[in-house]
Amino acid sequence: MNGKTGIVSNDVRKCVDQVIRYLGKDIKLGMTLALGKPILIANEFYRRAKEDPSISLKLLTALPLEKPRGHTDIEKRFLKPIAERVFDGVIDFDFMLDLRDGKLPENVAIYEFFCKAGANLNNPHYQMNHISSNYTHCARDAFDYGCNIFAQLISVREFDGETKYSMACNTDICIEAAEVIRKKRENGEKAVMIAEANINMPFMYGDAVVDADTYDIILQGDEFNYTLFGPPKDAVALPDHMIGINVSTLVKDGGTIQVGIGALGDAIVSGLVMRNTHNDVYREILDKSGIMAKHGDVIKRWGDTKVFKQGLYGSSEMFVDAFMQMYKNRILKRRVFDSVPLMKLINKGELSADKIPADIIDKLIEMGAIHAKLTGEDFSFLTEYGILKKDLKYTKSAIKDGKVSYLTDLNNAANRTKIRKILGKELLNGHIILGAFFVGPQAFYDALNEMSEDERKLFAMSGVEKVNQLYGGEEIRALQRKDARFINTGMVASILGSIASDQLQDGRLVSGIGGQYNFVSMAHALPDARLIVMVKSVKGSGKALKSNIVFSYGHCSVPRHLRDIIVTEYGIADVRGKPDQDVIAALINVADSRFQKKLLAQAKKAKKIPMDYEIPEEYRNNTPDKITKLLKPYQEQGFFQPFPFGTDLLPDDIALGGSLKALKGLAAGHPLKLVKGLLFEFVRPIPGSAQRHIERMKLEAPASVKERVMRKMVVFALRNNKRL
Predict the structure, then answer these.
(1) Which among 577, 583, 576, 586 has a CA at the least distance from the CA of 608?
(2) How many Å apart are CA 282 and CA 636, to the nearest integer?
(3) Which of 298, 388, 655, 696 is deepest in the core (most CB within 10 A)?
(4) Torsion over CA of 398, 400, 401 and 405, rounded to 10 degrees?
(5) Tens digit of pLDDT for each residue in 356-400?
(6) Do residues 255 and 219 both lie within one domain?
(7) C-alpha dist (Å) from residue 153 to 5, 150, 652
(8) Residue 645 belongs to a domain
């Protein structure tokens, strides 16, 4: 604005004044998803729009992080103390508070390409304004829609007296946004880019480090150093853990992993940790579950069950706490480098990250990676990656190590031999993950902040167009992402292999497609990669119980011709490149047995499977009870815990929260049982062990019939969930 960039200010009102004067009152404010939103900037623009109806404010974004509030009175009473404790110091987005309360003014609209799953199913504003974009396309689509200002939250640090900035948690669409805005200005268009700098934000590397003049204005000061939003982890149920165990067998040592946030992400990593640190117990479970007997062929070809010697590389749009847990457990440790010749040598086993062979220079010359007469560019390459040791100096004819010189004409065999004396000991500037955004619990941010700068550089950040695609760097990305397993979640799978993961068949958006399109694309493009879609076999309970493996579904996120591997808690269905009858049989085999006969009958009626086909005996006992009997003894030994990597929740939060969740499920699936249980509670005394929970819910002295009923509901919930 006004020809100046990189202005540092601590006045958010003045900043917004300047933007409105420059752009006018038609504001289309773009912000990235999740943690990278500048809360004070967003709130100030929203405040102006509320005060001045002549301002048109369109917010183009995704996944605003919200403190849990609850819908019913009993949920609100439960969540309030958790929110006050866990989110102490976290600032709310005012526009989201008003959206939830139905108070959003007419001159403000919110457009999102992704939201928390299920959070907006019954919100007309969201359903009408959802922008269906692939993650790699959302910056393009936002600017096509007219985005004229982009704002983000960044990190700031002082290094040797110089202020440095990093896009930190959200390089995803922000790198592209900065480039689009630069080009718009070159074409004479008005566009603005501003940021808030927060010292609590981990300072990340890779492509994240930016100059101050990337932004018109950077807001910086104490009020911008607010607490980062750290969502507590979701509980991992036993069926989730079983899915994690099944998936863990498909991950190859020395390969690449992409995994998402939530209970299933933690379940996968829990399975991988068990495989790596308790391999004897892990294999025992595989044998008892029948996984090896049923799926040994696909595991042998595409997976592994041994400990991780080489380790994994992470290539994932979401850099979440699951990756930190893999790092802590020596699983995420395969370093990759942004060099085609080095990655070729590493993949062939002729070079490793921690040991440089004596003949490395000879190999690089033979490959044409460097010249036989070393140039300055060759020298820079060799020192950047640690092939030559530090503190050397280059001239056209020699490399100097103090007073000792080594001739750069390596056509001479003697010179080649001598130069081996100044080789480095290990490769430098590698990374173990390339992520596009991160979000996680406070412990995750603390772990990053407590690292040395060199250690944190192992966790590289880049734009989603680089992380989620092969385009533009096919050779290097394919070399880095060898044996890739792109692991994602689906809601429903048809028995022909199509997946619905973002939308219900009535058209309502559940979340958004995110990066799933790209995972599918890469999995089919890379010769040694596989797409693994996890689908819980059922949802609901009692009368509300439904199968998530269905004959057909009225929405499709992944079409049947891109089917690959589908995993439920009951097994693995490898359906890529198979004829329809084999696909149907494989998916019925991993469905809940309460629905298998119906699915088979539907397939036969449609003439998609032979009329005399019968489900093999070994697949006819797919029941929750079978999983409980298998895993419960191990849970008692300390495995398969609801929060395998810790939680911000207190034990009473977990006990009461789990009980109330089970009560909600009971109301949907067994309403008569709920009514009978509640009636019975009214003639029973309240156990002393329930008293602290009642006090927590502010129901120790009920002031109305409604509160007396709620108190009995709390007691029944605890008793029904065996917490009393």
Answers:
(1) 583
(2) 15
(3) 388
(4) 50
(5) 999 999 999 999 999 999 999 999 999 999 999 999 999 989 999
(6) no
(7) 17, 11, 34
(8) no
Whether 216 and 258 map to the same domain: the answer is no
Residue 232 placed within a domain: no
Do 148 and 168 lie in a common domain?
A: yes
Tokens for 111? 């457009």
Helix, strand or coil, per DSSP, at residue 574: strand
What DSSP string runs through 123-171?
A: -HHHHHH-----GGGHHHHHHHTT--EEEEEEEEEEETTEEEEE-TTB-
Are residue 210 and residue 264 in the same domain, yes or no?
no
Contacts of residue 473, Cβ cutoff 8 Å, sequence gap at least 6: 466
In one-letter notation, the amino acid at residue 417 is T
DSSP, residue by residue, 210-277: E-GGGSSEEEESGGG-PPPP-PPPPP--HHHHHHHHHHHTTPPTT-EEE--SSHHHHHHHHHHHHHHH
Q: In 3-state terms, the chain is what percent helix, strand and coil (to 5)?
A: 45, 15, 40
Please give the radius of gyration of the chain, using alpha carbons only, rounded to the nearest integer: 28
pTM of this prediction?
A: 0.95
Provide the CA 459 distance to its chain's centre, in angstroms. 14
Q: 156 forms bridges with which residues in the sheet? A: 165
Task: Please answer whether residues 257 and 487 qualify as being in contact, where contact means their C-beta atoms are separated by less than 8 angstroms.
Answer: yes
Query: What are the tens digits of pLDDT across the range 53-72?
Result: 999 999 999 999 999 999 89
88-136 pLDDT per residue, tens: 999 999 999 999 999 999 999 999 999 999 999 999 999 999 999 999 9
Whether 270 and 151 share a structural domain: no
Return the structure tokens found at 186: 């070159």
For residue 436, the enclosing domain spans: 238-335+432-624
Structure tokens at 205: 């590397």
CA distances from 311 to 483, 562, 591 (A): 12, 28, 32
Largest CA distance in the chain: 97
Q: Cα dist. 425→343, 356, 366, 381, 383 in Å? A: 17, 6, 21, 16, 12
